[in-house]
Write a structure and sequence with these properties.
heterodimer; A: Four Helix Bundle (Hemerythrin (Met), subunit A); 2 domains; B: 101 residues; Helix Hairpins
């Protein structure tokens, strides 16, 4: 096995483990830290897929901005002191777990049985060139200029919406 | 051995399922919110994997838009959680049923 295969299995294992831990954790702060570990593993997998710029953006945006915001809100609401949420296992959750397990088996079966496993055994030979800042920036300002501007409008709307919602009184 | 595409698809399927399980079983609104972020990330991994295996940049562009929407969702969603906590003193999604009837 090559070093890339080892790295893939290492990061995949950590990603799955931290995701499962995130769901199992009682303390929301520990859940957030597990999710940050998961995001770092996904950034490493982006690097294995030769999407360098996305790997950096993943760390900056998700772990640097979104998860800091989540941790900030957890701190603000002081959830550590709140009495235990009633998280016992009941009938509703059992049915949900069975549905989820079926969903996973179906997806894995579909991915395993498709012909793509033969057709896409290796990365595209050009894949090293498409993930660069130059290429992605060029695409953004040529083919995807209108969606790019609409995304900025969406973020503006989100900023205004967040301020309006979190304010005590308008 | 190089990693074929369906390994990445399987990994993102597992991560997505863990996220779905979290949304269905957890009652803390912020943890549910983090599970949604996990599901968005697993779909991003699928998009990047296809982008690299097909040699097409469009998948990575789409990941940027998903990240922009996730950032907007994070800001608005956490603002809603704060507003709800101010009114009801809880983040348990079973007790937040003011839109139910």
């Amino acid at each position: 096995m090559s070093i890339e295969a080892y790295l893939f299995f290492l990061f995949a294992l950590i990603a799955i483990a931290s995701a499962v831990l995130m769901v199992m954790q009682r303390n929301p702060v520990m859940s957030a830290l597990d999710l940050i570990a998961n995001f770092f593993c996904i950034a490493a997998l982006y690097l294995l897929l030769k999407a360098q710029f996305l790997a950096v953006i993943q760390i900056i945006v998700y772990t640097g901005a979104i998860m800091v915001l989540v941790l900030f809100v957890i701190m603000l609401l002081n959830l550590g002191d709140e009495k235990r949420l009633s998280e016992q296992f009941d009938m509703k959750k059992a049915i949900g777990s069975i549905l989820v397990a079926g969903f996973l088996l179906e997806m894995l079966y579909l991915f395993g049985s498709s012909d793509e496993s033969v057709a896409y055994a290796n990365l595209h030979p050009e894949s090293g060139n498409i993930g660069t800042v130059e290429n992605i920036g060029g695409e953004f300002f040529r083919r995807f200029l209108l969606p790019f501007e609409i995304a900025s409008l969406l973020l503006l709307a989100a900023i205004i919406g967040a301020v309006v919602l979190a304010k005590k009184r308008l | 051995m190089t990693i074929p595409l369906h390994y990445y698809l399987g990994l993102s399927a597992i991560l997505f399922t863990v996220g779905v399980a979290g949304v269905l079983t957890r009652r803390n609104a912020i943890v549910v919110f983090m599970c949604i972020e996990l599901m968005l990330n697993s779909v991003n991994l699928t998009l990047v994997a296809y982008s690299s295996f097909l040699g097409d940049v469009t998948g990575q562009i789409l990941v940027f838009f998903v990240m922009a929407v996730a950032a907007a969702e994070a800001a608005v969603g956490l603002a809603i959680v704060i507003a709800l906590f101010r009114n009801k003193q809880t983040v348990n999604i079973d007790e937040i049923n003011i839109l139910k009837w």
